[in-house]
Design a protein that fits this description.
heterodimer, A: alpha+beta, 5 strands, 23% strand, B: alpha/beta, Ubiquitin-like (UB roll), de novo design (two linked rop proteins), 3 domains, 12% strand, globular
Chain lengths: 87, 425
């Protein structure tokens, strides 16, 4: 077993049909989610590195904290090189 | 037999008096198709005529690779766009060509069931299809089984996932598809959804092959297409033209205003094109640099007597009302866009601020719905900002243009049943 190498990235994805704009996600993951003027989440589509543990943890909290279970963490196998992803 | 260079191909027969099965088989005799069905379809380079212009062969291949005993072919003749009449014309001229194409598609992917979806608000087309299906039932009893379905007519009900949702579960609502391309399913059975016109083209390719099909059209967009021309025209027309025909020629067929202000291209989820570009060939590869496309084969002509801002407002207002209200950004965002455009169209005191909000909101809404409905509206609004930049400038500062004051409208927009329908909750 041992340590799993954390390569690749993730995006927090929302199912817009499920989402009812409770806004818990922005409280739990303020770095990843902001709200639009109607209270629905805006999530950046560029992947975040999996090595960014605090972001991953807050994303997990947001997924667990969503009252409509509308959030998901999608793994992206390869991160684009360069400054495109957020560390 | 129809020769490769003959026109029309698809619109044979009078609209309203469809070819019977016997007439159809006399007009389109089974020809010598040079190669296998799928190989010919691939070589033909046919792209979907429902709006997305996705290569049909690639879609068929995807479904063909699925291992399942309960596959479906769905013929989408919902025609949600108010400016579109092509599926209607096609099915009232030659329904059997469409059904033939659906049979070819079913044979290629191994589907046992074919569902033909026609909006129930269009009873004459429902009748034509019903009659055609009865004729075929009497003739032979082999191959896939046809069924006619009549979902209610709504803009998003014709969206493929909404249509499949209806067939699966009687709900005309788009589905959330995290990965694309997704294979839609009825029960567990994978579904191939194709527009009626695409099916008709498959019917021709299945008979005469790819080389015959490519006799018309351009290298990248082969074949002919049906165009619905409405707006400032002498006679609203559905014309069959080879792809690559210039816009000027297409407009002439409908007796359109020869010097229009602008054109709506592709549908109400499409884009505005400046009226100066009439010499462009009508094909996706030549239209793309101008930010427009063939889309669902719709051209709405706006004459210089009208106002682009007002037309955009009317269309966006209706499109906002046609949201399925499943996703927040669409349910709240589109009415907000419509409201901002209302301020601009009427050049109210709030117009300058509304313009700012409009630009910001368009950026916020994009890409956040389950289907492409909000994206289409955003694209439409953005293109209007570009094409009617001068008009918007005037409207922003409280000076509505002459066209806006003339109160003449060109784009057909169904009336909202209630004025307050637009505001949700």
């Amino acid at each position: 077993m041992g340590m799993r190498r954390r390569t690749g990235g993730f995006v927090l994805a929302v199912n817009p049909i499920q989402c009812d704009g409770f806004g818990h996600c922005t409280e739990l993951a303020p770095d990843l989610v902001r709200l639009d003027e109607w209270g629905y989440p805006i999530i950046d589509k560029t992947p975040v590195a999996l090595s960014n543990l605090s972001a991953l943890e807050s994303a997990r909290l947001a997924v667990r904290g969503c009252p409509r279970q509308a959030l998901r963490i999608e793994r992206v196998s390869d991160l684009p090189e360069g400054p495109a992803h957020r560390a | 037999m129809i020769q490769a260079h003959d026109l029309p191909r698809l619109l044979h027969g009078d609209t309203g008096r469809p070819l019977t099965l016997a007439q159809h088989e006399a007009t389109f005799p089974i020809g010598a198709r040079p190669g296998g069905l799928f190989e010919e379809l691939e070589a033909s380079g046919l792209t979907g005529r429902g709006g997305a212009a996705f290569p049909t062969a690639r879609k068929v291949r995807l479904l063909r690779e699925q291992r399942n005993h309960h596959k479906f072919v769905v013929v989408n003749a919902m025609e949600g766009e108010p400016g579109a009449h092509k599926d209607q014309s096609l099915l009232s001229a030659n329904p059997h060509l469409v059904l033939d194409g659906a049979e070819y598609l079913a044979a290629m992917i191994g589907a046992k069931n074919i569902a033909v979806a026609v909006a129930r608000d269009n009873p004459s087309v429902v009748n034509h299809v019903t009659r055609a299906l009865h004729e075929r039932e009497r003739r032979h009893d082999r191959g896939a089984k046809f069924e006619l379905h009549t979902p209610p007519w709504r803009y998003v009900a014709g969206e493929e996932s909404a249509l499949v949702h209806w067939l699966d579960d009687n709900e005309s609502l788009p589905q959330y598809r995290p990965q694309r391309p997704t294979i839609l399913r009825i029960g567990h059975g994978p579904v191939l959804v194709d527009n009626a016109e695409t099916c008709a083209n498959v019917g021709l390719i299945g008979r005469y092959g790819a080389a015959w099909f490519r006799a018309h059209g351009t290298e990248q967009s082969p074949g002919t297409t049906l165009v619905s021309v409405t707006g400032a025209v002498a006679r609203p027309t559905v014309a069959e033209v080879p792809l690559g025909t210039t816009l000027r020629e297409i407009l002439a067929l409908a007796g359109a205003d020869p010097d229009p202000l602008a054109l709506v291209m592709g549908g109400y989820g499409g884009s505005w094109l400046d009226g100066r570009h009439l010499d462009l060939p009508y094909a996706n590869e030549t239209l793309a640099p101008y930010g427009v496309g063939v889309g669902a084969g719709i051209i709405v002509v706006l004459s210089r007597a009208g106002c682009g801002v007002v037309e955009t407002h009317r269309i966006v207002r209706w499109m906002a009302n046609e949201s399925a209200r499943q996703c927040g950004p669409c349910a709240f965002g589109l009415p907000a866009l419509a409201e901002d455009l209302g301020h601009l169209a009427h050049a109210t005191r709030d117009a300058a601020a509304a313009y700012q909000r409009l630009v910001e909101r368009a950026g916020v809404i994009e890409g956040r719905g389950a289907c492409r409905h909000p994206d289409g509206v955003v694209r439409f609004v953005r293109s209007s900002l570009a094409v009617f930049a001068a008009d918007f400038e005037g409207h922003r500062h409280g000076a509505a243009c002459a066209g806006a004051q003339s109160r003449r409208h060109f784009a057909a927009v169904p009336t909202l049943e209630r004025e307050d329908e637009l505001i949700w909750e």
